Structures are given as structure tokens and as C-alpha cells.
Amino acid sequence: MKLIGLTREEVKEAFKNGRFTIAVYGMGKMGLPLAAVFADHGANVIGVDINEKVVEMINRGENHVKEEPGLDELVRRNVEAGRLKATTDGVWAAKQADVMVILVPTLTDERGNLKLGPVYDVAEKISGGLERGDIVITEATMPPGTTESLVPILEKSGLKLGEFGLAHAPERTMTGTAIRDITGQYPKIVGASDEKTLEAVIGIYETINRKGVIPMSSIKAAEAVKVFEGVYRDVNIALANELAMWCEEHGLDALEVFQAANTQPYCHLHMPGAGVGGHCIPVYPWFVINLAKKTNPRLTKTAREINDSMPHHVVELTVKALNEVGRPVKGSNILVLGLTFRGGVREFMKAAAKPIIKELKEWGANVYAYDPLCTREDAERFGAEWKEDFRDIDAIVITADHKEFRELDLEKLSKEVRTRVIVDGRNVLDPAEAEEKGFVYLRVGRVDFGQP
Ligand SMILES: NC(=O)c1ccc[n+]([C@@H]2O[C@H](COP(=O)([O-])OP(=O)(O)OC[C@H]3O[C@@H](n4cnc5c(N)ncnc54)[C@H](O)[C@@H]3O)[C@@H](O)[C@H]2O)c1
Fold this sequence. Notes:
Strand order of the largest sheet: 3-2-1-4-7-8-9-10
CATH class of the largest domain: Alpha Beta
Strand content: 5-15%
Number of strands: 16
Low-confidence stretches: none
Number of domains: 2
Bound molecules: nicotinamide-adenine-dinucleotide
Helix content: 40-55%
Largest sheet: 8 strands, mixed
Radius of gyration: 25 Å
CATH topology of the largest domain: Rossmann fold
Mean pLDDT: 96
Structural class: alpha/beta
CATH architecture of the largest domain: 3-Layer(aba) Sandwich
Distance between the termini: 73 Å
């Protein structure tokens, strides 16, 4: 059933009654939860992926995205009910589907230079099965203007934009909370090529999202929303880092000051820390920087510089802490806790641990690493030796906020280590408790605390 020309209420009715088919391209951490949620609300859903193993698993009713709570059951239930199936054949899927959602990786290097290969590949496949009245939606995060750059590829179908609809509806979520976020943590942002497409796409997302939809005046504006969310986070984390380093100079505890300041409703000081990693926040500012022709996004650039300098600052804190206990860094045994870029997720893009390990080794330290989500091989790839205990350790440097690190038994730890030094790059431990157990405890924004 084609949706262009229907009111949002008619689309919702058709959705619940399974009267149209949605193909979701990319069955990864974002695509599979979305496909399963679509199916759970009644649509016929075809998941498309180039990875045969992923396709086979889904068709057996199995979920491969283990970080996502609730997804096992959602996939099983909807495959069993016949509402969700998967294929590697993207052209076939496009022929069956009335709505095609693109949620494949938009790969970038650390400076936001895009490799849009997977997106263009999917657009080619869709053009092989595109029909009059179909709607193509991009959900993957893209530099403003990217969705519309797909039009010439889609028009290889012989149809002109207007005969099919195009929209952008950015994925506003992250690994581990996708189902919660897709179904109603935040409103969905939608921009479309024309009013009728917009109306139909609003109907689609209002069906699955309790918080509703914010319609935008253009596709490009919808793309900018998601990119700006990332820039906002990056700039504000940089501000927190800058003020935290100022607090270090002035013998203040930055978090104490931030928490008090944030009780005023216009102040939202973020968390300082060991650096900003992942595929999103440190990358999206580069979309803005790279696309600026007349404007000079100085603040955005400076924020990137500050956040990229934080791993080096954590090394400086480690050197300072070891000096305080009279141990030279050269020859010290340092244990880095956390190889992933953040807690609970096995992703390594711009993880702070990597430059920290490298620099500590340049100082001549023996660097060890542990991460509950990682392996010995991961540690070796980062240049550190895997270590699962604290014996003979002179300094612990925390670089990811895994639950296991928040729950560290400091009493036990204080007896196992050789030297009691903790540099907490993720603010996961209670400073008072660490100091009570005899540790020299430093974190970004808290050194020489309380000393004149
Ligand atoms: N992971 C996040 O936290 C997050 C958050 C917000 C937005 N996003 C956006 O979602 C997009 C997808 O991210 P993800 O985390 O799901 O990625 P992912 O790596 O977990 O999954 C991507 C899937 O796409 C498949 N794929 C690659 N090329 C393909 C092709 N040509 N045709 C069909 N399938 C193909 C891969 O085999 C893989 O299964 C990203 O580009 C990003 O813009 C991700």
C-alpha cells in the first residue's frame, strides 16, 4: 500500500493493520531495534543486510545485538508472528516495500571525512526496486545536504523526486537504549521532500513514538538537528574541561562547583573527563567545520582541540600523582582501566585509553590494561599488557565508566596495589572514600583539593 496522499491518521491505521511493508537497510545496533519496533507495531518488515550471518540469525528469530535490553524477545516474537524477516537482497526488498529506511553506517575518519559507500550502495539497490508512491527515509546521521545527494541515484529508477518521496528522520539514540529511545524517550525529528511525504512519515513515526514528531521545514534542517545535538555536547564538554582545569589551578573541586551551579535552571555544566570518544560526538563537529565556507566555526574547532587534549592532561595528572608519592613514572606499573570509549559498550573509536597508553609508554612506564568488555588481544592492540589483578600496580588510571569500575572495592584494592594512586578520568569513584583508604586520588578538576 502506497502512503503518499494518505493522512497521518490513515497511515497509522494501515500501520497497525499490517497493510504496508517497510524495508530497513542495515541490521546493526540501530537498524535491528528499529525494524523490530516497526514490526511490533504491526507493519510487515524486511531487514536488509550484506552480512549473511546476521540475516540467517534474524530469520531464526535470534538477536545479535546483545547490548540492547529487550531486543531478544522483540525479534523472536515478531519473526515468529511472520512480521519480521531478513534478506541480503536489497533490490528484492525494495520491490516488496512501500517505505525504505536507510540505517547503514555513515563511516567517517576522526576528522569527519565521509565514506558514504554503504549509503550510496543502498540507494543503488533501492533504485532497482523503487515504485511510484514509495518513500525513502534516511535515519543514519549525515552532514546536512547528504540525503538530497541521493536523488540522482534514486532517479535511476526512472522516477522523478515527487513521484517518490524522500525524508530524513535522524536516529536520536545510542547503543543500549535504542528501543527505549525509538519508542518514546524523545520526539522524532522529520524533514521531507514535500508536504504529502511529510504527512505520511509523521504517521509512521507517531505510530511507534509516544513523544510524537517534530516536523521540520526541510530535509536539510532535520539533518542539522542531529548534527547540532552532537556539537552542543562536544562544546559543552570542552567548556566543562576548561573550567575543570581552571579549578585545578585554584585548588577547587570542579564537580562540587558545577553541581551547585547547575541548580540554577540556565546552567548545564557537563562532566569533565579523559576525552570524548565514539562515532558521534567527536565526529559531528567536523561535519559543521568541513561544510563551513563563509563562516569560521571557531568555537566548534576550539572545543574539538580541548577535548582531544584531555588524554594528555590525564597523563599529566598521572605523572603528578606519582610524583606526589615519590615514584618516577619511568619503570612504574600503571594499570589503565577501560579500553572502550565509554561504559557498557564495546566500541573503540577515539577511546581515551589509546593515546593515554601510548604517552605513558613514552614516559617509560610499564602499562597494563583491563576492561570487562574486552580481551587480551584488544589490550595488545592498544599497546598494553592484559592484567586482571592489581598486584604490583603503582597507579590506576580509569578511562571508561564501566559499572564494574564504579563498584571497585577500594578496601581490597588498597591492600593489593604496590602504590596507592588513582587517576579517575571518568569520575566514577568517591574521592572521600578513596582518600580515606589512603589513595592519592586525582581527577580532572580536582587536584590539591583543599590545599591553599
Ligand atoms: N550506534 C549508535 O549509537 C548510533 C546512534 C545514533 C545514530 N547512529 C547512526 O546509525 C547508523 C548505523 O549505526 P549502527 O550502530 O547501527 O551500525 P552497525 O555497525 O552496528 O550496523 C550497521 C549494519 O549495516 C550493515 N551494512 C553495511 N553496509 C551495508 C549495505 N551496503 N547494505 C546493507 N547493509 C549494510 C552492516 O553489515 C551492519 O550489520 C550510523 O551510521 C549512525 O549514523 C548510530
